[in-house]
Amino acid sequence: MPRIKKQEEQQLCAYFTPSGFVIEEDLLELQDPLKTWMMQFKADKHRALFHLGFLERAKWFSPSLEYLHHITELLIRKISQQADLEISRDQVQVELGNNEVERLKDEIPFAIGMEYIDADWIRRLWEELLTVFRTEIRDYDGTVNRYFTDYNSNINVAGRVFFHLVENKEEQFPFAFMATYSTKTVKSKRAVHNPLKNALEEFRGEDKKLLNLISTVIKAAEKSSFISELLESGELFSPLKLTREEAYIVLKEIALYEEAGIMCRVPDWWRKGSNSIRLSITVGEKEPSRVGLDAIMDFSPALKIGDEPLTKKELRKFLNMAEGLIQYKGRWVEVSKAKLEALLQAYEKVKDLAEEGALSLGEAIRLELNGNELLNIPADELEVSVTNGQWLKTMKENLTQPAALPEVNTVPSFHATLRPYQRNGYQWLYQISKMRFGACLADDMGLGKTVQMIAYLEYARVHCGGHALLILPASLIGNWQKEIDKFAPEMPYQILHKSELKAKEAVQIKEDYFLYITTYGMAVKLEELNNRKWDYLILDEAQAIKNPGTKQTKAIKQIPAEIRIAMTGTPIENRLSDLWSLFDFLNQGLLGTAKEFTDFAKELQEHSGGYARLRKMIQPFILRRLKTDKKIISDLPDKLEINSYTTLSNKQVALYKQLIKQIEEKLEDSEGIERKGLILSSIMKFKQICNHPDQYVGREEFKPEQSGKFEQLREICETIREKRERVLIFTQFKEMTEPISDFLAGIFDKEGFVLHGGTPVKRRNEIVEQFNGEQYIPYMVLSLKAGGVGLNLTGANHVIHFDRWWNPAVENQATDRAFRIGQTKNVMVHKFITKGTIEEKIDTILEEKRKLSGDILSTNGEQWITEYSNEELMELFALGGDKA
After folding, report:
1. CA 446, 448, 450: angle at the middle one, nearest 5?
2. What is the per-residue pLDDT across 433-443, written as a single tens digit (0 to 9) for each?
3. CA 304 → CA 314, 335, 400, distances in Å?
4. In this predicted model, what pLDDT tens digit does every residue of 612-638 receive, in sequence order?
5. Which domains does the chain have, with CATH numbers?
6. Whether this model's pTM surpasses 0.85
């Protein structure tokens, strides 16, 4: 049994689901404090998450757990700031505003299941966590303040005192200030607010109660001379008129008051910063004369107060005024001479750059991500806002909404009808390549990335010509051949791989082809690929270049190409470094250097709003459609059936040919029952060879590279792993269940289940319950007969038929273990077919019979094959293609 990999970074990763979140870690592999917290999590996940909010950010937080921690931290802070908390206790209402929800959506990290997080998801989690607090405080004996102190002594529960600052119409005293306190009414649990001076009367003769009430004010007075003077003079207990200088002191000290536990209500413009002076840059008003990210963009700087323009002359006037609050055109503006000087310098610098025309389209797009850094403006001094001009705005909108793109018909030589979302994808590929941008087609597995790409390539072949290079995993060569032959039969292509050649024949690029197909492994070896500039370079399963330091990734990025396209179902699930490497291939420099992007990723932990900026920036270059999208679901069948074509390894080819010779000799001398037995046993042996040579020869090594099916299984299951989905693998051979399971345990870093005829009934029931439960069990390997009846396995949304029963009724019955009542996802069915073998030929026969009559062949499996003549049998058994 393979040893499951030990977690390297000792971080806990949360995975988001439609109903919430899960964290699955092996407790034996974890060290404290992770282990202790995970034990609490397994007992009650929402309670454990709520109490995590009392802790400071820790190194063992992954970005996804950090996000959940942030939501909890926000809730705890808002609870602690409820001035009537001691009164309301378990009846407390803590609202999450629409603006706060939008901010939380902006902060969603790149993690598995991030597409499930929307406003409803956030509000459901908020209520679950609030329920934890209500339940605990209801049963808590002490005060609410004591409850919070038990978990974190640094949390200051809001007292009952409020500070109010409002604008006033008097010229000399343009602001009014008042302190109030909350008190419980007789008839209701809700609190009402009274002027603080009323407390002098309410607590007359009860100095201890009065001191307790104003304890937060005393804390604030220890750090604020302004509040200290008001408290000592007694002025704090009456409404006050404030000068603009005094009001400015209050506004600057808000954080200090709130830290002491005083609730502050001040004008919105101060909280939002909407009256501050800022630098705004408009980029891309006009269409550039060139295409691509190197195109020179027009851009212009502007000074603004809120949304109102400010001239350079007006800004200089501010510099001559006293610091603090001043009134300008009916609004209050904060004047800080240091900030205004920095702002003026930045304005002049950007203006000079604009006159020099020194900004490329790639740099213009990067401005949204880190404009201060790109323009060398200190981020802590002022904020630069970037606005897209008319051309740039329209361009981005078109690429992010492909349904609105101009209609581009497929060419007549493309023989397929695209689904609406596939047609949008084809048009998007056409449009983005026309602009010479690198593009990532990142649709979910099963949505038809291959057929969209073939539609685009066939259009390019007919209208533009040139040469295209496609790099993919070796296990997908057969799939692409089948799809091209079916959908674009006129497209000439050459396979640059040793499996397509005779033993000592060398791989050579011939000139009379449009498409050249090779593998990641061969791309490193074929130096000739670098000797020409390809018109199109396409990577399938582009996650193969996610590690920028590998020899393979470096070699592929060096291949010269005019247009670069990546295809992957898992572009950016959990590691930002993967995203950088992908864009380093597609649009080099757009995300900066590796170091620049690493520094940016670290900053995200402190300023998580950067996730929104990053998404917005890369969105035009990634087309991502999900099976969970309601628009896509309505366009899909509930059950997607896909033939996955695998190729034979050299060892499989040798055994297959050897078996053909043996059968040919024996067929001549056999008849009747003996002949029928020979045919059926031979079919079984061919199936074994197609599965893995070791199954046929009786060995137990089962090296993956010796079987095309194992390599295909890897490709599919790596994507399933990244998506945190589950899969059922059916085989008709009991002896194959354990080798497949061992192989998958290494892929998922986690063991799944095996179920066959020898599994006891009680254990079967336990397996089904656990597989469908919340704990992540990635796979189940089943023998076809044992898994064909009596099981409800709706936890899985992928089904793989590793070998074929050649009876559609039996296969459908097995598939329906996942596809039945209770299934909430689209089920993908992958049927493995070894190209050029008996598997492919019999599949073709089955398809033809279905088309002719709609009948399903008899339930006797492959018995019908025994009726074939010797000549027909040998044609059926013969190894097709160049290997014959």
Report:
1. 120
2. 999 999 999 99
3. 11, 14, 29
4. 888 888 999 999 988 777 777 676 667
5. 15-151 (no CATH), 161-266 (no CATH), 277-397 (no CATH), 405-628 (3.40.50.10810), 640-883 (3.40.50.300)
6. no
